[in-house]
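Hi all, long-time lurker, first post. I run a small reading group and we've been trying to get comfortable going from sequence to structure in the token notation. Rather than ask abstract questions, I figured I'd post a concrete chain and ask someone more experienced to write out its structure so we can walk through it together at our next meeting. Sequence below, copied exactly:
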Amino acid sequence: MRGLALLLPLLAACSLTLEVVYPGHRIARLETQPTYCAYGNTRVDYRFYLEGRVDRLEFYWVPEGKAPWEAAPQERSALGGPIYGGHVRGFVEVTPDGSIQAVSLVSPQGASLPQGIGVEPALPDRRLWLRGFTGGVAGPYVAAANPVRGDASSFCDPSW
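-- Answer (accepted) --
Happy to help. Here is the structure in token form:
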């Protein structure tokens, strides 16, 4: 007890600072269907696994080989959240010339977030990229595992 009394003045001089830091999020296993139709609109399906929660999700529909930060303003879209963790799926509706007509997302909690945008028309292979934001802090860019190519066959819009 006496030893504790001697330590009290030293302990009183110490301070403890706690900083609350949001653990952030992680987007993993982003995949898209392999083709989009060359003769009509296509809902290009995508899916990914989200760890944590994002307040905002950005979409980039850029030609293959182009980095998402090089995307023209018309090649971007964003959906506000919150979007909660788990398996997330949705679609990007595109025209044969590469224009995006709409973006939709369904989170595990059933929240549906549609929004329409447009991009410059083009017919190159394209790749979907995502980037999440939590508390205003941007996460990394995440590329789909596969590019999406134009297809003129009747099998151009496969079901998932």
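A couple of things your group might point at:
Helices lie at 2-13.
The chain has one domain: 23-146.
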